[in-house]
Amino acid sequence: MTATVTRMALLGVAVSVLLAPLPSEAQRADQALRLGVLSPIFPRGRHKMLDLILNELRGQGFVEGKNLLVEHRSALGRPERLADLAGELARLNVDVIMAEAAAIRAAQNATTTIPIVMFSGDDPVRAGFVSTLARPGGNITGVALLAADLSVKRLEFLRMAIPRAQRVAILLNPANPASRARLTELSSAAGLLQLQLGIVEVRGPEQLDDAFAQIARARPDAFMTVPDPLFFRERLRIADFAARIRLPMVSDWRQMADAGALIAYGPSFSAIARRGATYIDRIFKGANPAILPVEQPTEIDLVINLKTARALSLPIPQSLLLRANQVIE
């Protein structure tokens, strides 16, 4: 009887050991951190910045599906949805929220305790996201993209590339809070450069065709996009339009030049992702966003698409080519 009881006890121990979760499984359940992602427009499968950040985080030991969970919410071009989506992430009590453009304000309104890593095209002090760049003072930190200064520089490069230009169509999204500040700077610069700006507003992809028709009727000498996630997502469509009516286009991210823009001038996309991943990594490890200084990009790319220039029969001055980080042949 005693031997039988002993064997049954040992069998019970063995079964419980077999059924117990493996150490890695227990670690996933107990230690996984949650990254909330709030995007004004990009669905998960097309969020390039997030893909780059997750790749950087893997190098820091955070692997999605193991010790990192991603809660992605996108307004899909409907900014009125951002508040509800931000509220969802706040109720989930994620460890960090990553937000860009108009999503920053929604995240700020949803929580004052969950750390927010922002990618801001607006001045974050003027916008009220942080107290100062050096010492944010709240739950928001991240990267400020110097958008107004870079927009003015794009206009200067346009003037260098197309000296005869007089009228420039400007495509902007008024739903992006940073757009108005950029437009103010552009208007001032346009006066000095003797350029006339024609503003065309687009709030969503369904308005692009009407905007294209408006630009085509105006017959400007050049075309410029004011940075916005919408235009980045629709870059192939926008570049195809510019090529179809033989309109030189100037834009921001180098991916816009890859799509066919004549000139792209803006921060290095991969460098921005690395900095964003660094913020998320540090906060995951206990850093306080209130004392993490907001950074500004130090890697700025000037990309010139000579293939587009040749298609437009547009000679690019050697002085401009020498300043380029990359020339697309």
Summary tags:
329 residues; alpha/beta; 7-stranded mixed beta sheet; 5-stranded parallel beta sheet; 14 helices; 12 strands; elongated
Give a topology summary.
Layout: H1 2-19, H2 23-31, E1 33-39, H3 48-59, E2 68-74, H4 82-92, E3 96-100, H5 103-110, E4 116-120, E5 140-144, H6 147-161, E6 167-172, H7 178-193, E7 196-201, H8 208-218, E8 222-225, H9 229-233, H10 235-244, E9 249-251, H11 254-259, E10 263-267, H12 269-284, E11 300-305, H13 306-311, H14 318-321, E12 326-328
Parallel strand pairs: 1-2, 1-3, 3-4, 4-5, 6-7, 6-8, 8-9, 9-10, 11-12
Antiparallel strand pairs: 10-11
Can you give me a brief rundown of this structure?
This protein is α/β, with parallel strands linked by helices and 329 residues long. It contains 14 helices and twelve strands. Helix content is 45%, strand content 19%.
Q: What fraction strand?
A: 15-25%
Task: Please describe the biggest sheet, giving its number of strands, its sense, and whether it closes into a barrel.
Answer: 7 strands, mixed
The average pLDDT value, as a whole number, equals: 89
H/E series, N to C?
HHEHEHEHEEHEHEHEHHEHEHEHHE
Overall structural class, as computed from helix and strand content, comes to alpha/beta
Taking pLDDT < 50 over at least 5 consecutive residues as the criterion, the unreliable ranges are 1-29
Net shape:
elongated
Provide the spatial order of strands within the biggest beta sheet.
7-6-8-9-10-11-12
**Helical region count?**
14
Give a count of the beta strands, DSSP E runs of length 2 or more.
12
Give the termini distance in whole angstroms: 87 Å
Classify the helix fraction into a percent range: 40-55%
User: From the alpha-carbon coordinates, what is the Rg to the nearest angstrom?
Assistant: 25 Å
